[in-house]
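Subgroup meeting minutes
Present: P.N., E.W., G.H.
Scribe: E.W.

1. P.N. recapped why we're keeping a running log of single-chain structure predictions: easier to compare across weeks, and new members can see raw inputs and outputs side by side.
2. G.H. added today's entry (310 aa).
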Amino acid sequence: MGWIGEFIKYRNNPVLKGIPETWDGQSVRQNGLFKKDDTYYLFYSGKPAAGERWQIGLATSKDMINWIKYEGNPVVPQGKEGDWDSFFTMYGKVVEKDGLYYMVYMGASGGPWSYNMQLGLAISKDLYHWEKYEANPIIKKGGPREWDSFGAWDHSILFYKGLYYLTYGSNFLIDGQGPIGITTSEDLIHWTKYPLNPVVIGRFECTELFEYGGKAHMLYVYWDAPYPKGFQTIGLMSSEDMVHWYDYPCKPILRCEAEWEGIGIDDPGSGVGSPAVLVEENKIRMIYHGGPPHNWCNGYAEATLYPERV
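Output recorded in log:
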């Protein structure tokens, strides 16, 4: 038996949808979670219609079930023409340091899968108003012969053993998935890529890091059958040094099961993905997206943790 119990999905999922004819009218997904005092902050990506551009919005909740969207959304909009993030902003992951909030987010300056995806930084004093770092992007795609020459995306951040670690994906194959690398920082601004990247070889995306039982753990998304068959599914790896990872034996952690998650729909990209989690005492609480492509919504699930088994 594993150290994570079965994830129980909220029976009235989804908990967050797009609002028709607004900036997030078609889809919401690519999530980041943060808790301050008794309030949960969900930084999610939304877009109004097919072919339109993703931007980062904010919703708040007291219970992770009932969410209120911020009226000033999007909080991190796409950049202006010519900026590195002029095509979209997505996947805001937030940490707190010295009284400020730092969001690492994904941006791109060209069309879909343009190989221009890189990671930038925005800083806030209150979690609502964000200022983009003037020297963005802080994590750039690699050179022509490097493993991350196609870009950097689908990242997560964890403060672990005195350093900030960031996982990110690159060099996707036909299905948009690829290997995972790491980079480290002491200040969230200056990052050093691990020289032996990638640390995980395979076809993965949408990583989410958390610490439990003195170890680092990483949720990730994969297809449960060779692309384009099957559904997006969520798995788990663990590590003691952020370099050497081993798969959780009770796999998968979360699978596509409901109509709103895309079950029964023959369309590559259907399923569950972009997990964002918080560990609270003996519970792990997750927001994840589900649905067929371009009609994604966010759902909620939680599981019990067993510290003696880690």
